[in-house]
Structure formats: structure tokens, C-alpha cells
Amino acid sequence: MTTTSPLHLAVALDGAGWHPAAWREPDARPEALFTAGYWAGLVQEAERGLLDFVTIEDALGLQSSRFDGPDERTDQVRGRLDAVLIAARVAPTTHHIGLVPTATVTHTEPFHVSKAIATLDYASKGRAGWRVQVSGRSHEARHFGRREIPRFSLDDLGSPAMVELIANLFDEATEYVEVVRRLWDSWEDDAEVRDAATGRFIDRDKLHYIDFAGKWLTVRGPSIVPRPPQGQPVVTALAHSAVPYRFAARSSDVAFVTPFDTGQAADIAGEVGPGPLVFGDVVVFLGDTAKEAVTRKDRLDALAGTPYTSDAYVFTGTPGQLADLLQQWQVAGLAGFRLRPATLPHDLTAITRGLVPELQRRGAFRHGYEASTLRGLLGLPRPANRYALGGA
Amino acid sequence: MPKQIHLAAHFPGVNNTTVWSDPESGSQIEFDSFVRLAQTAERAKFDFFFLAEGLRLREQNGLIYDLDVVGRPDTFTVLAALAAVTERLGLTGTINSTFNEPYEVARQFASLDHLSAGRAGWNVVTSWDAFTGENFRRGGFLRQEDRYERAERFLRTAWELFDSWQGDEIVADQASGAFLRRPGAGAFAHRDSHFDIAGQFNVPRSPQGRPVILQAGDSDAGREFAAATADAIFSRHSTLQAGQDFYADVKGRLARYGRAPDQLLVLPAATFVLGDTDAAAQERADVVRHQQVSGRTALRFLEQVWNRDLSGYDPEGPLPDVDPLVGENTVVRGRASVRMFGDPLQTARQWRELAETKKLSIRDLVIQVSGRQTFIGSPATVAAAIDELVQRDASDGFILVPHLVPGGLDEFADTVVPLLQERGVFRTEYDGVTLRDHLGLAHPV
Ligand SMILES: Cc1cc2nc3c(=O)[nH]c(=O)nc-3n(C[C@H](O)[C@H](O)[C@H](O)COP(=O)(O)O)c2cc1C
Hints:
The complex is a heterodimer of chains A (392) and B (445).
Chain A: E1 8-13, H1 36-48, E2 53-56, H2 83-90, E3 98-104, H3 110-123, E4 129-133, H4 138-142, H5 160-185, E5 192-195, E6 200-202, E7 212-213, E8 218-219, E9 234-238, H6 242-251, E10 254-257, H7 262-272, E11 277-286, H8 290-304, E12 313-317, H9 319-331, E13 336-341, H10 346-361, H11 374-378
Parallel strand pairs in A: 1-2, 1-13, 2-3, 3-4, 4-9, 9-10, 10-11, 11-12, 11-13
Antiparallel strand pairs in A: 5-6, 7-8
Chain B: E1 6-10, H1 31-43, E2 48-51, E3 59-60, E4 63-64, H2 75-82, E5 90-96, H3 102-115, E6 120-125, H4 130-133, H5 147-162, E7 170-173, E8 178-180, E9 187-191, E10 196-200, E11 212-215, H6 220-229, E12 232-235, H7 240-252, E13 265-270, E14 272-274, H8 278-292, H9 295-306, E15 332-333, H10 344-358, H11 362-369, E16 375-377, H12 379-391, E17 397-400, H13 410-422, H14 435-439
Parallel strand pairs in B: 1-2, 1-17, 2-5, 5-6, 6-11, 11-12, 12-13, 13-17, 14-16
Antiparallel strand pairs in B: 3-4, 3-15, 7-8, 9-10
Helix pairs in contact in B: 3-5, 5-6, 9-11, 12-13
Bound molecules: flavin mononucleotide.
């Protein structure tokens, strides 16, 4: 089935790709993972494919095959650079694509994250976003030593203690995003007046204390950074169940969700929308033929020692088959997709040079960048400043 | 061979050094301004680019201070973006040790060092006040007396994290399937009176091992902290006598920590005004001073010492005859400079005497005592003065603060730098790659 309404397309960049054996592919560059050139090359490729944005994965702890701590494995990529800094480093080397780094809220300060993302928006001239990440991992809490998070494994997911912890972490995240958003608005757009006649650099009446006092956070403000070019950079969040859906619905501009079929895509889009744009996350193993894609996955699985599983739907097939799936799910209610390349650069270039031309042929994807900001690409208006309107 | 001079470029921020009202002044926020200044510094073969930081907007009399530049971008983000548009220039920034956590800051600096191929530097500052704390989870939790203790523990903890990867862990052997040589990379456990943390650090060892450490405190505790930990000290003593005293003082403290004098560079902040002749430069300097210090700015400056609202006074008239209010300064908030005036009564007395002797108005007095112009003269005069201060051990070089962005360094790069090069006291090409290389510092093992 086909549709002509354009869809939005992002890729999620992580290490050598999402498959744990991705770094062993012949075209992988595992020795370059910690260089600027590696990241700039990937994002420039995504930009050649006219994608809306890239996300950059991150966490405050070492990668692990376990939820509750490092796994002592030596056969997978371990170690990563700070995603906000990667995005900043890449910003001057790209011109159109949105840059959406991950930053954890659980142990960090909203004041710092707010100014970092605002500054990324300046350095990229309006292309910044942020993927909000909550951490419920005890070993990450130990890196800060400021609070205890009890140790859970994923099997405890439904336990009352973990349900309560998750609810609290997302309540805190809701406050956190609200603080960050208020800080972005704490300067009105025209606050810098440079009025030589009166000697005033700013009109201080256009700067606002946010005076946020919640259950988790109290922050006075205003920000030290003037309102960023987009007014509000694009806030995104990955959500898998009811509590995070509610968080994403209230706090995000783009929600990444993980349906496994068209029916789920429709249900989740209904639950999370209509506030944020709802994007489906899909892990992709692409090949010139379906068989080739399956063979690739099998080969990687054999290297890893186990079949690859994911929180998101795992697609194997050709770019054309992927285009079919995306268009079906789009009709079910998704605004776009965040594709997770199983290996880099292979699956990224299969997206930019295979999937994108196919979608263009179908009239379902842009032929050129039509806006200069990430909000513009996503069709999101530049928000008015809440304080300029006299609100809080 | 004469002593080699180190030079750095400070992007001028929220102090009244910056003349924002000049038609040549560009944005203090737009990234292009940072690019231009950094690229000029690199063209001139400077050691590094420097960013200051303040974590709350300054206030006076309960209102956000509006006479100087207000607002600045995030340190880490600007430096990482500048790494894309420069190749050799060191990228140093100010990051506070009170309102941050070691794990997070160590990750950011290690990442910056990777992303810049070894050019990161960290100016560790210790602002602790409750006023700034209102922007953070913990509020104002630290006593002033404890700020350097926390800074020292913070830095040592960060060092343990930087050292938690030794540098040989990543083998990335596609054939054998060994990404890491052994498990446990980045393992750390640290406990002291400020930090109790453990786990595995998730950034591999960076090109410099550890970023270069700068320190900018001036108190006895600050100097001791620098002697114990820093690679360079950013001071405010840029005249011959004060510079030599400071230089001898901090270098003299090093032996106690088993360190040699060349392991801590002394780099005072310095401004400059150039002209075709010394007289022309002097004239220009006078214009700049008056741009920097308006009547209103002068009164606000005086309030830093008087700790009172002085808005009723005439800036072209005599100094206030009332005495400063002693105690916590409640009029001026968020300015490091307030702490410069340890004894306000004595400062006021001295300034009054100076004003009476020289018949100075408030504005003239402030222009005189807040002297922000280190080097004034023709390029030849300025090059000679810089060289002399360095050869006579008043400093190891300077962190230059132009009064204009983004073009304020151009003239210096074009006229003074070649003269220093002719004298054989400043590099004509970078001979190393990392910031440590530029500063002549050993790479930590
Ligand atoms: C040249 C110079 C530059 C400084 N820059 C900053 C800065 O950017 N941000 C900051 O918070 N403090 C800055 N400071 C303040 C000091 O780092 C220190 O926190 C303050 O002077 C109090 O410490 P002290 O009592 O040891 O001087 C600077 C100080 C000097 C001398």
C-alpha cells in the first residue's frame, strides 16, 4: 500500500551499530569509535540522505548485556563519549540535519543540561534536540553517590518496589523537563537591547526568574544563556509502557515508541498522541535481497553467540520491504520513524541510499531540506515565550 | 635561548572589559563570534582559547545587572563545537567544582579531549555561594572555608577516573572478537569526606590522559591548591612588581609537593590597546576606558566596596562621604570581584585619599583603580613589554582579553605576534599536537 503524505525519518546512532557484534563487520571502524571523524562521517551521511535528525545514544554507565550492572564481557564495544559533546563537535560540520543527543536526567542538573542544549542550538543554528533519559540503574547511582537506587534486574519489572521507583523517576523527569523548558523561556527573544543611550545591554524586564519549586527540584533562574534560536529545542523521549507514555505525552515534542505490529502502532499512537509526534523505533538489518539481510543477521548472531533481541521491532529485509512496513505503520498513526541501524555504516547507507530514494519514488519523503531548523523540518511551530505572554 | 612566551585568548564575557556599545562589537552568544576569535588565536599560534563561566546572572541592588554583557553559552558545548573549526589550539574552559559531580565532569572533559584530539583544559573554580546554589539541587550547601577542600577532592577523584583506563584496554581485534583486552576497564572506587563513589568509568583514556588543569583563585588556599594540583595558574597580577611577587610565591610553594618550577605556568590576565604610535595607543586607550566605565558603571563599581546603594551620587562628583557597610555584601551578588576587597573600610579610605589628592571624580577614580589595560602602545612597545615581563619572571605568558568580539584579537595577531616571533620568544609553528605539548608539560603516565 502507498500513501503520499511525507513521513519523518531519523536514525539512532550508537557505537558500531545496535547489534552487539556490529563492530566485527568488515566495514566497521571499531578503532575510530572515540574520534570526532567517525561521528562527523556518520552524521554527514545521514544528512546526505536528507534525514530529519540523528539521535546519539548515551548513558552514565558502561554498556552491558545486563540491566543491573557491568557484565565483565570483553567481546563487545565498551566505552562511549558524552553525546551532547559529540553533537556539538559535529554541529559545525553539518548544515541541515537535526542533532539530538541523549542526556540523563536522574543524576544531573537541569540548569546544566538546559544551557548545554541551548548552546547546541546556537552552535547548530537551530538544529538542537534532546533525548531525555531516566536512569533506574543502581550502578549509575553509585557513580554519583548522592542517592541510593536499589538494585533490580529486568525480571523485577512488575514488583511493587520497582513500579514505585519508576513512577518516582518519571515524576522527577517531568519536573526536570519543565525546569529546562522554563529556563529556555527565561529570556524573552528580544531581551538583549544594547541601548547605548541608556547604557543598558539587556532589558531586565524581559528576563525572568523561573522560581520553580517542585517535589524534586527547586531552581531560581534565569538561565545564563539567552533563549535559543528555536525558542524551545526539540525534546524527545523513548517510551515503552504506561508511565513513560504519560511522561512522553506531557513533556516531549517527539516520542519514540516500540510497536511490534500495525495494530500496536495504532494503539500506542492513540495513547501517546496527539501532543507529541509519535515515531516508531525499528532496528534494521538491510540487504539487497531479503535473504541477504537474514544471512547478515545470522552471521552477526553467530558471532555474538545468541540471536539478537531488542525492545524494538527487529526488521530484516530490503529497503523496499522496509518502505512498505513504514508506510503501513504510518497509516496506523505514526508520524515518523527512528531507525536503529544494526551495523554502521552498512545499515545507515542502506537507509540513505536505498530506503530514502525508494520513499522519494513513492512521493513519501522530501527531495531537499525545506527548513533550516529542526522544528521547521518536523513541522513544529516556534513556540511563543510563556513569560512574554505573562504566564508562568 | 630566551624563555618562550605562552599566549592564550580569553573570549571576553560579562565583565566591563567588553565594550558592547562599540559599533565593531558583535554578538557574545552567536557561535560565529567564537569561531572568529578562536581561528584568529590559532592563526597566531596561541597556546589556547579560554572561556570563563558564571552559574548565575549577576545582580545589584536586587536587580539583574544590565550595564555589561549579560549571558554566555555553555562552556563544554562551545569548546566541543570549536574543536571542529580549529586543529591545534588548546580549548580550555572554566568548570566549577562545587555545583558539579566528578563522574559527570570527568566524562565531559575526557570526551572533549577525545573529540579535540588532545586539546582540553579545565580551569577549576570554586564559587560556592548560596546565591549561585539556588540554581542547583543542593542549594548553597558548602561553607566558604570548605570550597578548596571540595575542589581538591573533586579534582583528585576526577584524576582517578581519568586514570581508571590505562590506555591499552581497547584491542578491537575483529578476527578474535576481543574488543577489550581484559574485563574491568574503568573500575574505580573512591571514598573521602566529600565523595563516596564506585563503579566503572565509561570513557576510555583520552589523548592527553588528563586535561590540562588551570586554577584561578588568588587566596592563600587558592594558591596552595594551584601549587598542589594545577598545570597553570590564571592570575590577575600583570604588572612587573606584583607579577614577580606572585610568581615567586606560587613557584616557591611547588617544592612542598615534589614539583619543579616549570610544572606550574603563571599566566596573568592581560588586556591591550594598540596604536601606530605609543601616543595614538594612549589616546585610544583613554577612549576605550571611558567606553568601559560610564558614570553608571562607576557607581555600580563603587557599590562593590561600599555595599550600599549609591545611585543617588553624581558620578562626576566626589566620592561618597559615608563609609562602606561591613559584613556580607548584600548589594552586589554573583561577582567574584567582590571578594577582591577584603577590607572595604581601608579600600574606601585609600580611594578617597587618592581621589582628593588627584582631584578625581567617582568615574575618574574608578577608571584609575579598576585599571584594565595592561599593555598600551605601538606593537613594538607592547611586544617589548610582554617579553620583558616574561624574561624577568613576572609571568610565563599571558591570557589576553580583547575588549571587542569577535575581531579584538586580529590586530594583535597581525602586528605584535610577528614581533615576538622575530625576537625568538614565540613559536612560528605548532611543534606539537596536544595542549600539553604547547605548554611544555609532560604527558601523565
Ligand atoms: C583571572 C581570574 C579569572 C577567574 N575566572 C573565574 C570564572 O570564570 N568563573 C568563576 O566562577 N570564578 C572565576 N574566578 C574566581 C576564582 O576562581 C575563585 O573562585 C575566586 O577568586 C575565589 O577564590 P580565591 O578566594 O582563592 O581567590 C577567577 C579569578 C581570577 C583571578
